[in-house]
Amino acid sequence: MDFRAEAPESRTIKDAKRRSLIASGVGNALEWFDWNLYGTFSVYLAANAFDSGDPASGLLATLAVFAVGFVARPIGGLVFGRLSDRLGRRSVMVLTMCLLAGGSVAMAAMPTYDHVGVWASVFLLVVRLVQGLAHGGEAGVSYTYAAELAPPEKRGLWSCMPFVASTIGLMAATASAATLSGLLDPADMTAWGWRVGFAFGGVLGLFALYLRRNSVETDVFMDTTGQEALAKTPARPMNWRSALRAGVLIVLLSVGTNISFYAWISFAPTNAISGHGMHANAAFTVSLLAQGLIILLLPLLGMASDRFGRKPLVLAQGLLMVVLAFPIANMVSDAPWTLFVALVLGQLVWACVGAIYPAVVAEQVPTRIRATIVGFVVSLSVAIFGGTAPYLNTWLDSLGKSWIFNAYIMALGVVVVVGGLLIRETKGIDLRELDARHEDSPRAEYAGRVS
């Protein structure tokens, strides 16, 4: 059967899918707004959730909680991913959005160390763990949803939506920090100003929840597993060989995106402020300007992958990590323009795979286990290579051995190159055709003809 020969979709169906993609993107914006606001406001959180008598220790403790939040992400990816593979993408995205919105409100209402002592630290830890569960589920399911919703010939372009939305969420977090730090003096910013950003995240979450209620389910899910789920038939056992191979490939494809984002984008303003003495408002403003450029680049790279393939962009990211690791780290000073240049270069490296990340990881896994594997492995990779990056960078810098961290980034760049060499080219191929290649199934005969 030639899946690409199916009848064309009506305009109504296409419009419904586009609206659903936008609804998913709004949720991604909240996910990254909230997650990165924590990193951006880590200096202020340290002063409120921990003993203010030792600012350096408080900052490290706050970053440790940031890393601990990532521990819950793989669990969330596994649990919510499995639910999504049985019940559908749409229903689970509504559930994760409820948790994300609730987490933002909880952060805005966090008690301080001066009022409740160590319980403030405990509260922060619990909220981050719950948010980690939601983020793990949200990432895996939304990436899967974007890739499955897209037309095969435009999957690279459509799949840039989660990260376009994520960048908008990151910009909103940075803009909040820049605006608040510009309007408020440092004392007010530390006392209550940071809470405003998290409160705004709660409002954004309610809006995203409203939009997602009317999203459509993906065709490939309904064709492959949806009818079985609706009929409440027992799920087929997972093909562990296929799952393991897919998981290894996703890790190889993920390490560069994770480390470049958290080391060179998310944590960059805080590092410039605390490590190089840059004024907070200047650092946040420069970061906002640099992030605006990447929104224009992501769709272009997505379209490029639909024309030239996924492999060239993956290989480009790995090579750029090797070449730019030391220059990006060493160019930042207390001058805002140095941070701007470093951010632009770091975002370019990240965008090579970030623009097509949902597509390239979804294409490695069969539909009936896609959200489970993508959610778990992507979140595990983020926890190992992303969540630890700010702490590891800060710790090594405090020891005067920041070069080790840069060498570590270079080594991960080599890993990405290996991943780019190992994956098969998948641009333009219907996901149901890829299913036939991934698994022993009724489509096995077709798989033999297309492989």
Quick overview of this protein structure:
The chain has 451 residues and is mainly alpha-helical. 81% of the residues lie in helices and 0% in strands.
Topology:
Blueprint: H1 11-40, H2 42-49, H3 55-87, H4 89-108, H5 113-116, H6 118-149, H7 155-158, H8 161-183, H9 186-212, H10 219-230, H11 240-266, H12 268-276, H13 280-308, H14 311-330, H15 336-354, H16 357-362, H17 370-386, H18 389-398, H19 402-422, H20 431-438, H21 444-450
What does this 3D model show about the protein?
With 451 residues, this protein is an all-alpha fold. The protein contains 21 helices and no strands. Helix 20 packs across helix 21. The longest helix is centred in the first third of the chain and has 33 residues.
